[in-house]
């Protein structure tokens, strides 16, 4: 059963005293974090801060050494990724993760069918799933990929693949969407386009995003948390985080901008 979004302002994703060690090396060191319903929340930090590890803990790719992860108040720490997805959390990856030999429409259809509980069989034609196909068309339009409907996903431009992957994550209808560096490797024009698209398609949803481009963070997000050496050193509105001396020192003594 999919999780229902929490009311705006209530915590929908919470990390409590979360720790992760690999052998004797502790990467995540007692992280406490709350992401509120309807919030666009950015997680930033220098290279090696532990951001990818934290995302992997949240999405079930790693199990924590200790601590709790709650989704809509229910514990999910250590659950398998597909179970967490069914409970209402979906993510995109830093490295594009689409089915390259399938069409754009087919990639979206897989996500929608999975959410609806449909399975492909020899006795059911895809064309008979009219509600699914209608939803595919709606996502194509919202993602501005209608003209690429029948193109192989592997033939798309890099930025289009990133859009498709985000669409596949959205098509599971998550309570929380987490995006890992959605604008990485893009030109300034492509970044502007993607940011506008993310803002539009995530309207009313809860978003947690890792992003290195600070202009993206401060344009898109209404709350920012800073992770340094596995610990949250600041969390708040973008303007307050920008002015925080600890944050400035973490970025080699320069103000985040």
How is the topology of this model organized?
Layout: E1 11-22, E2 25-36, E3 40-44, H1 51-58, E4 66-71, E5 74-75, H2 81-87, E6 89-91, H3 104-116, H4 130-142, H5 158-170, E7 176-180, H6 188-201, E8 206-210, H7 214-220, E9 223-228, E10 231-236, H8 238-243, H9 245-250
Parallel strand pairs: 3-8, 3-9, 6-7, 7-8
Antiparallel strand pairs: 1-2, 1-4, 4-5, 9-10
What is the N-to-C order of secondary-structure elements (H for helix, E for strand)?
EEEHEEHEHHHEHEHEEHH
Total discrete domains: 2
Largest sheet: 6 strands, mixed
- The strand count comes to 10
Give the N-to-C terminal Cα separation.
Answer: 41 Å
Estimated structural class: alpha/beta
CATH C-level of the largest domain: Alpha Beta
Overall average residue pLDDT: 87
Helix content: 25-40%
The CATH homologous superfamily of the largest domain is named: P-loop containing nucleotide triphosphate hydrolases
Shape label: globular
Stretches with pLDDT under 50, minimum 5 residues: 1-7
Characterization of this structure:
This protein has 9 helices and 10 strands. It has 257 residues and is α/β, with parallel strands linked by helices. The chain folds into 2 domains: 10-88 and 176-257, P-loop containing nucleotide triphosphate hydrolases (Rossmann fold, 3-Layer(aba) Sandwich); 97-173, no CATH class. The protein starts with 10 loop residues before the first strand and ends in a 7-residue tail after the last helix. Helix 6 links the parallel strand 7 and strand 8.
